[in-house]
Amino acid sequence: MNNRKVVVTAVNACCSLGTEISEVWDKLKNAKSGVNAITKIDVDKLNTKIGAQMPDSYKSCLQLQKKESLCKNAELAVLCTQGLLAQSNSRDILSYYNNIGLVLGSGLGGLYFSEESLKKVFEFPNKRVHPLTVPFVDPNGIISAISRQWGIHGHQFTISTACSSGANAIGTALDLIRNGRLDCVITGGVEHTFSPLLYAGFDQLRAMSRNNNAPHIACQPFSKDRDGFVMGEGAAMLILESEERAIARGATILAELSGYGVTGGGHHLVQPIEDGSDGFDAMALALADANVSPDEIDLISPHGTGTKLNDQAEFCSLSKMFDKRLPNIPVVPIKQLTGHMLGASGAMEAVHIVKSIEEQVITPIIHYVPDGEQVLNISTSASYAKSIRAAITNSFGFGNNNVSLVFNKHCK
Amino acid sequence: MNISLEKLNELVIDSGDISESITITGNMKLDEIGIDSVGFFTLIFNLEEHLNIELDEDSISGLTMKNTVNDLFKILESKGIEIIGA
Is A107 part of a structural domain of the chain? Predict the structure, then answer.
């Protein structure tokens, strides 16, 4: 493997908190929640009735380069890319690079469209289905939409590993640049989540919080009374470049992406390994890949879903990795604010980490009550300045798909 | 049941990769209204959804891009749909 350094030169996100990064970042810095009562689907008979929905008004922000029919997840991908490429740091990359890669993560693809179409097929068997059913259901539809809209012709594919999809996409993009196959990759995750079948499925898994009366603090990562996650949706993306090419074109470097670690627990369909050993191994691999010691980590963005079992296992892995230093390292579980964006969550958290490193700031969440003696350094007060040399983010998906990424403050 | 020419125009635009608005007339050839074959099938789907009708597959298959918009009107009219403004 080539040891080329890989840097982040732009980030963007659209989710329940806003349609572009400045709005989203401002809300994260001020611990504003995007979780509210669900309006997009009928949840009357379900236990959980809250979620972090992307407002439909996002459609008015879409500026299609060419008019075409897009499925909703592709719309989110295009909206996020639009904001990414509009930034001053990335405005010229389409002409600067001959060969830009596109690597995105999505756990669900066009599942919502499958649901809507299947309902019609069974209710009205004689009616025709939408002629674009196949491309709309295709998980890679998000990539091909971006490729068509901006005429991007490089290496491109979608990764689907449940909730770690976005993080795996970013790690794979890192490898593609390191090994010299590409110099620049647009990467991240996209997920359109609010559909009746998917939501009811998570409801039946008893994985989501039933704290419907307090939506803003329903998801309580690592807290004593946590009872599950809250669904979110949206997209988050980063532009990764080889350091030498980014410097050559005069780009401002926001952070370095230095490490990627992956493990498969081989344990259970949806439950984590209790002692968090597979998560620990993913972090250890990422830190070794980054050549960063646990002592250099100044910020942890955990998977932190707010479920009893996941948070317990992750706490074990964090304790083992950071030992006595753990209570002193800021931990920022943003899913309390953004909801769990499933396949896009790892990318959302990577974007949060890059912004934290760029501004050298620790952001708060709204609510945290330590779970007995398992105390983490989670802030519920105002954002504060802190020197961040390196940060780690975890994405631990169903089926024990564990991914850790390490980002550094960039040093030439 | 009826559909205005204006609404039909809107469905045509929504069904194809058409960046500028067009004004359809009965004499226009189907391949002149800015939709490719996938767009045409999408238009048929959207018409059926909007009007809550089921168009006969043989009639649709009989249309080629060389047929006119009037030929499409005739298929709609055979289902009792009145085209307002045509």
Answer: yes
Structural domain of A229:
6-408
| A1 assigned to some structural domain | no
Give residue-wise pLDDT tens across range A287-333: 999 999 999 999 999 999 999 999 999 999 999 999 999 999 999 99
CATH of the domain at A359: 3.40.47.10
Residue B48: pLDDT band (50, 70, 90) is very high
pLDDT tens digits along B49-75: 999 999 988 888 888 888 999 999 999
Indicate whether B20 pLDDT > 70: no
Q: Give B54's contacts in chain A (Cβ within 8 Å).
A: 126-128
Residue in A67, A69, A127 nearest the CB of B42: A69
A66 touches chain B (CB under 8 A): yes
Active site includes A340?
Answer: yes
Interface contact flag, B42 A130, Cβ < 8 Å = yes
Beta carbons of A131 and B41 less than 8 Å apart: yes
Domain boundaries, chain B: 2-84
List the single residue in B18, B19, B38 with the smallest CB-CB distance to A131. Answer: B38
A131 CB near a chain B CB, below 8 Å?
Answer: yes
Give chain A's domain count.
1
A219 counts as catalytic: no
pLDDT at B21: 67
Give Cβ neighbours of residue A95 (< 8 Å, ≥ 6 apart).
none
Exposure string for B5-35, b = 16+ CB within 10 A, e = fewer: bebbbebbbebbbbeeeeebeeebebeebbb
Domain B2-84, CATH class in plain words: mainly alpha
- Contacts of residue A135 in chain B, CB cutoff 8 Å? none
Q: How many helices (H) and strands (E) does chain A have?
A: 13, 14
